[in-house]
Amino acid sequence: MNVFIVGIGLIGGSMARDIRRIHPDVRIMGIDNNAAHLEEAMSLKLVDEIAEYSDLARADIVIVGVPVDAVVAEIPKILDQINDDTVVIDAGSTKALICQTISDHPRRRNFLACHPISGTEFSGPTAAIDGLFEGKTNIICEVEKTAFKLQEKALELFREMGMRIRYMNPEAHDKHIAYVSHLSHISSFMLGKTVIEKEKNERDIFDMAGSGFESTVRLAKSSPDMWTPIFEQNKVNVIETLEEYIQNLEAFKKKLLTDDYEGIYNEMNNTNKIKEILKGIPLNKQ
Amino acid sequence: MNVFIVGIGLIGGSMARDIRRIHPDVRIMGIDNNAAHLEEAMSLKLVDEIAEYSDLARADIVIVGVPVDAVVAEIPKILDQINDDTVVIDAGSTKALICQTISDHPRRRNFLACHPISGTEFSGPTAAIDGLFEGKTNIICEVEKTAFKLQEKALELFREMGMRIRYMNPEAHDKHIAYVSHLSHISSFMLGKTVIEKEKNERDIFDMAGSGFESTVRLAKSSPDMWTPIFEQNKVNVIETLEEYIQNLEAFKKKLLTDDYEGIYNEMNNTNKIKEILKGIPLNKQ
After folding, report:
1. For B219, which residue in chain A has the nearest alpha carbon?
2. Which of A223, A230, B56, B234 is deepest in the core (most CB within 10 A)?
């Protein structure tokens, strides 16, 4: 089996690790416009060869793990190069624009639009880890537009990696993921910014920070290269989530200003039900 | 040595565990207005005896681990009962009001105002864990107002628990802790609320949530009994942090609305320096 990984970072590299473990006889080819990443991927044995788009005709599976602006730009070019039996899988955090972009491509049936809900705040080939996808949800959009035999090939691989599959249309995906993922990143980045701005001349103050602060700002370590195009592509939904979040913060502030501590207690008590909800979320192994 | 723990929850119970490990011959007495917690604390062997305020004359050390409204109400009563060589230590997340409240108490010199930056999102005696304070910062306020021999007794205990000590005045403590702790809790509670409200009829949506969401809403599991009085006592500082946070969120939203993706990239890139800052924060052992 020949697997091509386009973008050999956290997601592409972790897929490479899993595939090599599951299929020891696989041949993995890496394509990346970052030469340093390719070298790292070779020395980490994530890939066996460095390749180019002109080699894609040899691919059984192509996994595209690049920022979502590059997904939109590159998938049509990749589809142009593959053979009829190749399945091309992406892993982007937005789905509507990519599905629109390739809707009329002659090889639309060779593409499966995916979003594995997995990752860490780190990036690049050195961030790739074993078993990243075990127990995680993989959202697949417009599954009916992919050739049945190619769906099967991809689903078999996902099953071997231990992923749970959910089917959704691209618009619903982008709307809901704005709430459960994109908004978290903004809240975390802006929390980090607020504290850094305030405490910039008082580095000692971070001695006062504990694991609670660490947890809420963890996502502020994330890559701007990855996240800027996500916010751009999902602008409308993200703005909606931000407006509701800001409204809730304003309402909380108003309760403080008017000494409505019963209201504040109730807000927190009602939100405590997140405990039950979180129990269902598969987390990264520590 | 006789140690009294007033409020045998996460903090009081974890202190009891450490003290018993360090001083196997200690006698630990528990005082709590929650009878179920006292029973749990007995069966978990956190405490050797259930006690009352009238027993406090026997205490060498009194550790007060109750919500900050109860700290303010109870410390004067506790000071009324102790003997001259007893040191009373609190662990509240606010320091100004308690220091003001007992400033004229005849036994002010028996009190040491402390805030160990440690904890989890859980509460009650069953949440108590070993080594919670190892490597954590303990902020001590108005140290000069505590009798020197009693400071020494408390500091020896903190040293044995592995805590790092920082001295600060109560007003500075409350101002800075609003940024690095209290604001994180509000951002997390309101993030949880925003998502629960939106997705209340679509529980499946939480299948889309990953470890990033879990991390940013973790603090929304925290106890309203503990946090309502913290926000009340630190109202002025907390409102200031909330206003700055909301301003930053509004500015981010404006950048999205005006398609200023270079600005969004720069915001995230600048905030990435949180990586370096977080390296210095001692975290709970997993």
Report:
1. A212
2. B234
d(CA B92, CA B73): 13
| Residue B27, beta-bridge partner list | B2
CB B282 within 8 A of CB A203: no
CATH of the domain at B199: 1.10.3660.10
Structure confidence at residue B198 (pLDDT)? 85
Two tokens, residue A156: 């078999």
State how far the Cα of B223 lies from the Cα of B37, in Å rounded to an integer.
15
Q: What mean pLDDT value characterizes chain A? A: 94
Closest residue of chain A to B209, computed from CA coordinates: A180
Q: Do residues A116 and A133 lie in contact, with contact meaning Cβ atoms separated by under 8 Å?
A: yes
As for how many domains chain B has, the answer is: 2
Nearest-CB residue to A244 (from B118, B198, B268) = B198
Position A69 scores a pLDDT of 98
Tokens of B216: 């940013």
pLDDT of residue B285: 45
C-alpha separations of B275 from A189, A195, A221, A240 in Å: 12, 13, 6, 29
- Residue-wise pLDDT for B91-128, tens only, equals 999 999 999 999 999 999 999 999 999 988 888 999 99
Cβ–Cβ gap B228/A265 under 8 Å:
yes
What pLDDT was estimated at residue B281? 67
Query: Cβ contact (<8 Å) for B241 and A273?
Result: no
pLDDT at A125 over 60: yes
Question: What number is the ipTM of this complex?
Answer: 0.92
Interface touch B248/A219, C-beta < 8 Å: no
Give pLDDT, residue B203: 63
Nearest to B184 among A191, A228, A229 (CB): A191
Q: Which of A169, A191, A213 marks a domain boundary? A: A169
pLDDT given for residue A286 in this prediction: 38
Of A201, A182, A196, residue with least CA distance to A239: A182
What residue type is A180 in one-letter code? Answer: V
Is the pLDDT at A249 greater than 60? The verdict is: yes
Query: In which domain, by residue range, is A43 found?
Result: 2-169
Same domain, B76 and B193: no
Residues contacting A73, CB < 8 A, separation 6+ = none
Task: Using the structure block, give the residue that is written with the tokens 């700055």.
Answer: B244
Closest residue in chain A to residue B176, using alpha carbons only: A205
> What pTM does this model have?
0.92
- Is B285 a member of any domain? no
Is the per-residue pLDDT at B204 higher than 70? Answer: no
Give the chain A residue whose CA is nearest to the CA of B210. A117
B228: chain A residues, CB-CB within 8 Å: 261, 264-265, 268
Among B194, B218, B227, the residue with its CB nearest the CB of A241 is: B194
